[in-house]
Each structure stands twice: as structure tokens, then as C-alpha cells.
Design goal:
- The complex is a heterodimer of chains A (about 120) and B (about 110).
- Chain A is mostly beta strands and about 120 residues long.
- Chain A has no helices and eleven strands.
- Chain A has strands spanning about 5, 10, 20-25, 35-40, 45-50, 60, 70-75, 80-85, 90-100, 105-110, 110-115.
- Chain A is globular.
- Chain A starts with a strand and ends with a strand.
- By secondary structure, chain B is an all-beta fold.
- Helix content of chain B is about 0%, strand content about 45%.
- The radius of gyration of chain B is 13 Å and the shape is globular.
- Classes of the chains: A mainly beta (about 120), B mainly beta (about 110).
- At the A-B interface, strand 5 and strand 10 of A face strand 3, strand 7 and strand 8 of B.
Chain lengths: ~120, ~110
Amino acid sequence: EVQLVESGGGLVKPGGSLRLSCTTSDFSFNTYTMTWVRQAPGRGLQWVSFIGSTGRYTKYADSVRGRFTISRDNARNTLYLYMDNLGGEDTAVYYCAKFGGRWEVDSWGQGTLVTVSS
Amino acid sequence: SYVLTQAPSVSVAPGQTASITCGGDNIAGKTVHWYQQKPGQAPVLVVYDDPYRPSGIPERISGSYSGDTATLTISRVEAGDEAGYYCQVWDNGGDHPVFGGGTKLTVL
């Protein structure tokens, strides 16, 4: 069974930075496009970023472009999200997730909470 | 950017049928996926590429299209179906996934 485990969340001050990690197992990590999806408290799902299987292609939501950087280490089966210049609007649970063959998100991590507050 | 519209809430009595809709321009020309999210849990894929279901998802959960609306139908609703439901498509123009705003299903 696919395993996705996020870490790195926590409390950060406005303007601060944080790096999330997602360790994966039990699937061929280096052949799948991976993504981050977030959910603000009491709100819906919002796509944040995705990265192609080799790491060469990345895409970001307008709300995070220029502040967030997605990356992956295929040798370590790990996905990352570096978040800079954080604001209150970035407070959310961040989910690491895997795309399936029809661009469905077929596997999700349990999520890691990022709280931006002074 | 492509927009998906969902009603914020739907209520249904146990044993009845719940219909959760997802509106979008020419949505019948897109591949629609549906997720269930229970409180405090990560989302779970329940229907992909309408009408396929991942293993372990019961047959009483199904998807369909009509015009500019995709519908997730849950037959013989149970208390355990109470959750948020989200539709999702791929925005070809923007080259990224788009989620609907979500519908909270309440079982009366």
C-alpha cells in the first residue's frame, strides 16, 4: 500500500519560512508526478504545486508562485515544499499526494499543519 | 481559470439517495474525479474518470454527467457517509488540477 508521510509543519511567524518533507514508500516514486494540496481551517481543498517525475517540470498556484518551491529527491523517495515569506493566508493543513494515470489524486498523506501567526 | 461549482451542503435521511453536483463549463468534456473527506482525515478518492471506483469503494457510490453538471450519487445513504465531498478536474488551459469548493453531506 502506498505510504505518504509529511513532516515539517509547525508554528511560524509572518514573513518566515518552512520546509515540508514527504517521505514515501511502497510505490515507484520516480515514475509519478507528485503534488501538494492544502486546506485552510474550515475551508476546501486548494491545489498548491506539482512536480513531474524527473523534477524538471514544476507548476504553482498563483497564490504561492515566487514564494514556494517544490522539489524531489528520487534517490530518497522524498518530496519537498519550501515555503518562504509566509503569511496568515498560508495557514493550512498541507497534504502530500500522488497523481494517478488520469490526473486523479489516488493517494494522500495524513497532512501536516502549518500555522502562520505572530 | 476553470471553475467548479458545488452546493455548500446537502442533507438526506438514512436509506435515501444523495445527489452531489459539480458544475463547470462543458464539464462533460473533462475527466471528473470525486473525493470523500471525513472530519479530521485526509481526502479519499471515491470515483475517478467517471464512473470508475477504486477498490474498496462500494457500488452504491457512483458518478455521472449531464450537460454542464457532474453528479456523485450515493444510494442507500448510511451515517458513515456523512462527510465533505469534492469534485476535481484538470484545467487544460492552466495545466493544473482544480477542485470544487466542496459539499458537506449531512445524514439526518
